[in-house]
Structures are given as C-alpha cells and as structure tokens.
Amino acid sequence: MDRIVKRATPYYFHIVNEAIKRDIPTELALLPIVESAYDPFAYSHGRAAGAWQFIPSTGKYFGLTQNWWYDGRRDIISSTDAAYKYLSQLNKRFDGDWLLALAAYNAGGGTVSLAIKKNKRQNLPTDFWSLKLPKETMAYVPKLLAIAELVKNAEKYNVALKPMPNQPYFSQIDTQSQIDIAQAATMAGITTKELYLLNPGFNRWATAPEGPHRLLVPVANKAQFNKALSELPADKRVQWTRYTIKSGDSLSTIAQAFETSVELIRKTNNIANNNIRAGKTLLVPTASQLSSEYVLSQHQRHIQKQKNISRTTDRKDTYHTVKSGDSFWSIAKTHNVGVRQLASWNSMAPGDSLAIGKRLVIWSKPQQSVISSADRQIIRKVGYKVRSGDSLARIAGKFNVRIDDILQWNKISKRNYLQPGQRLTLYVDVTRSN
Questions:
Q1: Residue 60 predicted with pLDDT over 90
Q2: Is 136 designated active site?
Q3: How many domains does the chain contain in total?
Q4: Mean pLDDT over residues 405-428, rounded?
Q5: 52 vs 358 pLDDT, higher one
Q6: Each residue of 321-339: pLDDT tens digit?
Q7: Any alpha helices (H) in 325-432, and if so which ranges?
Q8: Catalytic residue (one of 35, 136, 149, 259)
Q9: Could you tell me which residues are beta bridge partners of residue 379?
Q10: Best CA proximity match to 111, nearest among 138, 146, 148
C-alpha cells in the first residue's frame, strides 16, 4: 500500500478536489487503485491505458486525444475529467445507484442493463448484490468498497497509511507551444523523470505540437518555470536541424531517425505529400538531449522493460520483422510463445495493429529454437457453434487451445457471455484436439 500511496501523492489532491467540485463521492478518487494501482503508465492486454484505464474507443468518445505525440488517457487532468463524466453518466443511467455505475464502468453499461432485465423477468431484486455479473465485476466493486473502508478506518484494521499533504501538488502552466521535455525540466529545476510523472500523457521527447500546450510542474517550482518560459522565445522551445535528403530517404525513415512524426515534418516544410528529392533540405525538430535523458518517454520505457526482462529471466532475445499478413497470433505460434506475452514484451496489447516493417522482440527460452516447417503443428480453421452449457474453458479444453486465443480470434471479451447458437472461429491443431 505504501507504494500505491507514493504513486498517488502527486495526483490525489487534484482527483479528490475534482470529485468535490462535481458533488460526487470522494471515494471515487480511490478507483485508480483498483484500476491501475495508481500507475499513469499502466497498459493492459485489453488496450486500456492510464490510471483510469480507458480503452481507445471510450477514451475517444470522451474527448481524449490519442496520437503519436500524446495519449490523453494517461493525462491526469484530462483522464480524470473523462472518468468522472463517464461515472456520472452511468450513475444517472442507473437511477443514482453508484454501485451499479461502478459495475458498469468495469463491465460496460450494456452488461449491467442485461443483468437487470434478466432479474426483472424473474421478479428478483436489481441491486448490485443480486445481479449475476462477470466474476471480475463482482470482485471489482467490493474491492473499491474495501479500500474505502480501509482508508477511512486504517487504525481499526491496524494499518499505517502514510499521510498525503492536503494541498495542491502541481500547477498548470500554459506553454502556448510545443516544448522539449528535457529543456522544460531544466527550466523548472526538476528532473525529466519528475516532469514525465506529472505529465504522463506525453509519449515523446517533447510536448505535442498541436497541444495540449499544458504542462504540470510542482507548485514550488511554478515561479521559476514561468520566469524561464517568459524569457524563452517560442522558436527556441524546440531545437531544429537542417537535414539534407539522401538517396533512398523517405519521410517515414527521416521521422524515425529523428524521433519525430511525418506530419510535423510535412507541416514545418510545407510538404503536401510524401514526395521528397535527394539534395533538398528539410527543417526537422530534434531532441536537445540524448534519447536516454527522456527516461519515461514511450521509447525509453520500452528499453527499460527489455533490460528488466533480461535481468530477471534466462531467456534470450531474438527479433521478428513484421511482414504483410502477420498477426500477433501467427508470430506467437511460429515462435511457440503466448500472444499476450508477445504483445507485453513489446509494450503492446494483442489488439494493437502491427505495422509492416516493425521489429518485435521475442524472448525465447534457452536452447529453444523456432519450430521448423517440418515440425510445425497442423493447424486448421474450425467453425464451432456454441451449445447450451458451453463455456470458454470448456471449449478451450475440448480443442486444446487457449482461452485468450479464442477471445483474440473472435474479437470478444471475457466480459461477454457466450450464447447458445453463437458461432466461433477456432484455429485448431488437428493432431492434438480432443
């Protein structure tokens, strides 16, 4: 719990205060403990990101921008606003019942509504405790209630919680334009790590060129940062390099080399399409420091993850370059690893799209080679019609496949109930199926 309190300290005052402003239960400020252990960089196998764990579609619905430079699902200000709007909508939908709203935040409003309708047809109560909901949801709501009780009565349960200051931790600064993260950290008198932790929405070495032009800095460093910002012209907030185009270059390879986006290079150089000519020069934004200085950028977090795996396992790393037609499932099968594991190694989720040419790291067990064509399993695509009494576990056992693979192949969630008559697509090793 101490670790969670330490993580939450920079954000908790703001999140509680926003609940008070909206006249909603302040216990909701504890929900990120259940969702992500208050980790703003959390990313689940279901593609949920940030302290509040928004999936891409829900985040987009609530106005959370997601692009190469920035992910609003990790932004403390934006994601908290979106989460409270979502919870308030769900509370209204379920007639002011916060337990049902919380259940819907986890399982989806449709799942909860169907459970209510089912109970009504059977003349059963429709409160949270009387509904038949997914196991995860039935544990999710009590978990929040238990945490709230523990925080409220820590002494009663003989738990020593570290106190958090009842005052703002950060101030919001309007930078008005893109700014280099390392440069901004120096201006504020803090480390780049501290600045990223307050601004986890920024993926790269600089804030997003199209905004938000909002940077959070510790209250104690606000005056220093504002003074430095006022003395720094807008055109000096990001370093620029003149690059001479070489034969074979493309906008994408240049953007990758300078850790910037094709869109920004186009906009800066007034390029309407992808056509560039060798010998011409481009103005390209570049980081002011070495890549390693941007310790919590998306790229550096991935590098650190690989170091951690290398340090804590006896596996050896190999690489796979994505080709046309590749999927997480096909690559995982070829290398005899799990789909979810493969995605996790690459700081991705199984539902993320794979770009052709992307290099994926694969951590193989010692003396374990890639399965040869001769030894490969005989895989066949099988259509299966769900029968009464079927479950994911039962179907997985029958065909000797993984539950996660069934979910991936059919783009369904564990939260969805299987219905008799529903058709599933399975990829079965016919030499091993029961």
A1: yes
A2: no
A3: 5
A4: 80
A5: 52
A6: 888 888 888 888 888 888 8
A7: 328-335, 339-345, 392-399, 403-410
A8: 35
A9: 429
A10: 138
